[in-house]
Amino acid sequence: MVTASAVAVVGAAALAGWWSAQAGEPSGNAAAPAVTGPASATPSAAPITGQTSVPDPALPAPKVNMDIAHATESGGKAVNITIDDGPDPVWTPKVLQILRDNGVKAVFCMIGPQAAAHPEVVKQVVADGHRLCDHTVSHNTAMDHRPDDYQRHQVLDAADQITQASGGVRPMYYRAPGGAFTPYSRQIAAAAGMRPLGWNVDSKDFQKPGVGAIERTVRKELRNGPTVLFHDGGGNRAQTVAALRDLLPWLKQQGYTFSFPVR
């Protein structure tokens, strides 16, 4: 489940230029004081190109950029399709089929226990060429108010569950439930090789407002940026499936291509 507050809000800048500029955008929490981690300090690492967040030297050093990603790898007029809260044995295969029919690759942000319960679905996601994203163990949208140790287990335990379910393919991204990122959780994720991943367009499909409403929201909000959020878990996702069936061809007709988020 997501909240509207986590969606990036932009002005009237040119579309392609604005999206490209988001590659190194930090989260709203990036200026907050660093959270103290384990007592043993780790050696400082070389700066990561484009990263604006300042890592806490007491924590493991980031292996990838710890700023929240929004931009596409390809740049230009492209979108990132991201799918949250699965895998689901009923709805994820339906989403996969629509993506397959349209030649589109996406990022699947998976809840750890869901992945562990449905490894065959996780393996199919990987086999189809999509990327994996860690969406924590418990999907606690208030985890930014929980202790560091709780956040660490939510992030790293889910990554292990997803990796095991996939047959050894590790998540490339980390998306906090409801956008509840903290500097601590972002650095812990980045130290494990997972780029924090935000979104620009919330399709509002989680609320099941109707297929037409989902489609109108996406078309209207695309001006905000390229990363679009849908759901394949958390209940009946028939509306999401139907909306994707319409939206993917429409996006192509509008001249959009499909990409993965920057790393």
Automatic annotation (TrEMBL):
Signal peptide: 1-23
InterPro entries xref list: Glyco_hydro/deAcase_b/a-brl, NODB_dom, Polysacc_deacetylase_ArnD
GO MF, any single term: hydrolase activity, acting on carbon-nitrogen (but not peptide) bonds
CDD domains in alphabetical order: CE4_NodB_like_6s_7s
GO terms, biological process: carbohydrate metabolic process
Bias-annotated ranges (Low complexity): 25-47
Region described as Disordered: 25-57
One of the Pfam families matching this protein, by short name: Polysacc_deac_1
Keywords assigned by UniProt, alphabetized: Signal
SUPFAM superfamilies (UniProt xref): Glycoside hydrolase/deacetylase
Residues of the NodB homology domain: 77-259
Record-given protein name: Polysaccharide deacetylase
Organism, as annotated: Streptantibioticus cattleyicolor (strain ATCC 35852 / DSM 46488 / JCM 4925 / NBRC 14057 / NRRL 8057) (Streptomyces cattleya)
